Amino acid sequence: LLTSEVIYGNPFALPKFSGALLADFTVYNETNSAAVVITSVTEGADGVYTFVIPVQTSADVLTVNLSKDGFEMETVTVTIP
What we know:
There is one protein chain. With 81 residues, the chain is mainly β. The protein contains no helices and six strands. The chain has strands at 25-29, 34-36, 40-43, 49-52, 61-66, 76-79.
């Protein structure tokens, strides 16, 4: 019999991250080696964020990072269509 106890609920169903602010994110254009200024970040459903950034060139590769105490996020890579 295998049992598992956690303080904060089911260990296999982690809560969605919510409550991030614009200052918690960075966007970097890997193609141009330049930071991208984020104009706004809006949270819809928990853990779903919409970013407004200046227009980027098609095929540019962007990376999105989160920097918030107590949280960790894998870098997200986006290729501009």
